[in-house]
Amino acid sequence: MADWIRVDDPGELIVAMPAMLGFVPERSLVIAVLRAGKPPCVTPVIDAVARFELEPPGGRRGMAARIAECLSRICAAEQADEVLAVIIDDRANEPGPRQANPRRMEQAAMHTALIVALDQCLAAYEVMLAGAWAVSAIHAGEHWWPLLGAPCGGVLPDPAQSSVAMSSVLDGRPIHASRSELTAVLAPDTELCEQVSAQVEAALENARERRVRAARHGEEDSYRRALLERVLWQVAHAESHVLPDAPEIAGLLPALQDPKVRSTLFALAYTEQATAVEKLWLRLVQALPLHYRADAATLLGYSAYVRGDGAFAGMALDVALESDPGYEMAGLLECGLRSGMRPGPLRRVGRSGHAMAADLGVDLGPLVESAEVSR
Predict the structure, then answer these.
(1) InterPro entries given for it (predicted)?
(2) pTM for the model
């Protein structure tokens, strides 16, 4: 997706950001990490995008240094040494004769100060801030202006006509109107949660009894195979746009809680059913009580991570860690995401899960070359 963006055109870069993030950023600093283009193309391409709050929880003191440190790790992982910055803030306007609001002028000055400080901090890591711009909002006709270099700006084209946005829509990746709208996707369905809560203990007790009987007869693999097949049955239903009800959701919980079965489920992100799998994980995140949500949220975060949707992956992993702060896999994925690790190395987790499924006698089908192929 990033290869289609001309990094020498700030307007095209800015309108492409909602598609790259999965939502329209507001009051944000968005950083595009550049890598050198491959011959015969010499134009750099965008290899990663990171978003930072303009009003971070810890305050603005030391903000530039914190951002620079984070970006240095991402650049090291991407083997990149250049970045571009865009500030989106409805509290500021393009400076100049049209600017008459002192508060907006003050806000614009703060943005310039942040960029100057960030430029200096990045230089200490041998990373160059190759360009920086600001815009009040990402809408057609909005004026953007530079924060570094020559004092000239431009007008945004229609974001809906961006080649990156159109590609995102065609690939079935929605662009949400705001980050809060994207967050709302992960919010619990209160009524469904109550229905599932009433079913959970019985489902887990039933699974414990079956596991004990299987262990007595040396049939643990048969027990786990049945758990996995129950998940695959629901995946098949999700492909037909039929999602599980409360009893079925509770019945899937034993599969998520069994370590070996859960390990096989990561492989599903690399199968032709990956889209349906993600729908199923999302349904479970919305439906399971908080203290049972970590497994499903981690699987959802992994699925989003490997298909390149870092924003949604981070939100899903936040849900997992809220449910269980000590959840190791969620913590590892969140750390990798924060440090800019590419999805490629995570394929080992999928391959391992595929092999475990085969050991249980379940063929998950071939793994696709890229998790994005199935979407």
Answers:
(1) DUF4192 (IPR025447)
(2) 0.77
